[in-house]
Amino acid sequence: MSERVIALVDQRHPSLPLPTLLAGQDLSALPLDGLRRPLTDLRISVTDRCNFRCSYCMPKEVFDKDYAYLPQSHLLSFEEITRIAKVFVGRGVRKIRLTGGEPLLRKNIEILIEQLAALRTPDGQPLDLTLTTNGSLLARKAQSLKDAGLQRVTVSLDGLDDAIFRQMNDVDFPVADVLAGIEAARAAGLGPIKVNMVVKRGTNEHEILPMARHFQGTGIVLRFIEYMDVGATNGWCMDEVLPSADVIRLLQTELPLVQLDPAAPGETAERWGYANAQGEHDPSLGEVGVISSVTQAFCGDCNRARLSTEGRLYLCLFASQGYDLRQLLRDPAQSDHALAQTVDAIWRGRTNQYSVLRGPDTASGPGRRVEMSYIGG
Hints:
alpha/beta
């Protein structure tokens, strides 16, 4: 087992220079990046704070009581977020996911959801508006989120065993409260619900089958995520990665599966449906997904951009630097048209394919990647 080392580094890195705009820059066609990938998915972090201290994301050794979070004045306001989101929608975005940190810690987030839910694509269609949460506040907020216009939620849950779950969130939070939040979301109509389980070898792999049994046939899609080498504070080592192929083999010892086609272009999860006695997918039993973030690169059709809570645009989950859009949003001279030109120029210059370049066996590439808690998963 490799020694676990936690680097004490600031998660906020210097910004990349904004591209120079050309007079008369054409916006008639939606942008494609340098690898011909469209921009259709925007993930917006609304806070850098979280009430959990999961070791793979915000370890307590780094994010302690003395950690300096962003001051309120540095965060994008709801109006700024909505303005830049509208610009992105005009450039091809059809799905917006709110993330954190823990997004439900952002005060009055329902107001932001109302504003985003009112946006329409150029052809008049509503957005796919979703949110990822640790579920700790979901029971009390599910109905208000739905009433504000949120369509669905993804809940992070790393096991059903209460002792293991409390160990992994490292704040002694009970699993029963997260399960109550999931039920409240279902009752409110926030669906289809997805549940994400990060699998760490030696920590919670024995929870894979219990989690699958629990959610089979419920309409909730359970997804298993390989422990990722994000940021610089989680002490990542390959020894703690359980490959998705091993997860599928373990599931199939008890629960027969058949592979399904991707649900949408750019989907990160490989889908597997529960099979009936004839070896065919039984929709009533549901499905699981595996996200092979380490062992199988899925950069080829990545269509996602990430906006940090202070307005930096990151083009990859494993990026080390982002583009400061906040300075443009707070410049009275910058029109929405100029913002759209900037977004286009940034996206057209994108060539990110970190997982392909890294390879399946080791972490390499940028030495000071931005923390996942800063830009969302």
